[in-house]
Amino acid sequence: GAGVSQSPSNKVTEKGKDVELRCDPISGHTALYWYRQSLGQGLEFLIYFQGNSAPDKSGLPSDRFSAERTGGSVSTLTIQRTQQEDSAVYLCASSPTSGGAKTQYFGPGTRLLVL
Amino acid sequence: GQQLNQSPQSMFIQEGEDVSMNCTSSSIFNTWLWYKQDPGEGPVLLIALYKAGELTSNGRLTAQFGITRKDSFLNISASIPSDVGIYFCAGLSGATNKLIFGTGTLLAVQP
Predict the structure, then answer these.
(1) What is the pLDDT of residue B10?
(2) Contact state of A33 with B94 under an 8 Å Cβ cutoff
(3) DSSP assignment, residue A60?
(4) What is the DSSP track for chain B?
(5) Which end of chain A is more exposed for a tag (fewer CB within 10 A), N or C?
(6) Which of A4, A59, A98 sits opposite B1 (nearest CB)?
(7) Is pLDDT of A88 > 70?
(8) Can you tell me the distance from the alpha carbon of B6 to that of B78, in angstroms, rounded to the nearest whole number?
């Protein structure tokens, strides 16, 4: 399929462990966004990439959260020393350009549970 | 983080009924969007609104962009069971076009 893919689909980890979440955007999409959806909440913006750079990191909740993007394609969201409040669905979206919300396509998400 | 106020939180209706949900913000947005999220999936865009006062339809869906640019509503006519899901409004924010989402409306349709 040509859509946004994310892995793993589900992740259960113990408090204090580090986790890495992966996003494979649609080929050729230059813009990439990470969002978090906590139980009973709407989606919250985390970070935006244009190419390999991240001009907007304003949504990252703490310095335990970081993300990188390589080759203008795959992105990895890393959460260090996970806490129970990090449990959520982490969604990735990609877009051909930075303009035009009509073209922001979402992946299925990674469901993270921190025990 | 910033969120839009969306109501109602949930709706339980009979098949064939019409549905209305709305979204308000304390901030102005130049673009309003409505998404639907099915279980285990990411949100899918239903309707995008670009101009204040704009009324746009997509099949049984109709959405309007408030003239103050601080609110929007979504109507679904003649609901069917596959309309079940969570509906989110979203505003497009800033030069990076990040989405600011509403709190969601859970729609349940009884056949």
Answers:
(1) 95
(2) no
(3) -
(4) ---BEEE-SEEEEETT--EEEEEE-SS--S-EEEEEE-TTS--EEEEEE-STT-EEEETTEEEEE-TTSSEEEEEE-S--GGG-EEEEEEEEETTTTEEEEB--EEEEEE-
(5) N
(6) A59
(7) yes
(8) 22
Task: Tell me what pLDDT residue A42 has.
Answer: 76
User: Half-sphere exposure of residue B77, counting CA atoms within 13 Å on the CB side?
Assistant: 7
Tell me the average pLDDT across B44-57.
93
User: What does the pLDDT look like over B64-102, one tens digit per residue?
Assistant: 999 999 999 999 999 999 999 999 999 988 777 889 999
For chain B, give the mean pLDDT. 93
- Whether A100 sits inside 8 A of B44 (CB atoms) is no
**pLDDT > 70: what percent of chain B?**
98
A96 — contact with chain B (CB < 8 Å)? no
Q: In this complex, is the C-beta atom of A45 within 8 Å of any C-beta atom belonging to chain B?
A: yes
Which among B35, B102, B42 is positioned nearest to B63, based on CA atoms?
A: B35
Is residue A9 within 8 Å of A90, Cβ to Cβ?
A: no
Instruction: Find the closest chain B residue to A34 by CA distance.
Output: B98
Half-sphere exposure of B48 (CA within 13 A, CB side): 12
User: How long a stretch of residues is chain A?
Assistant: 115
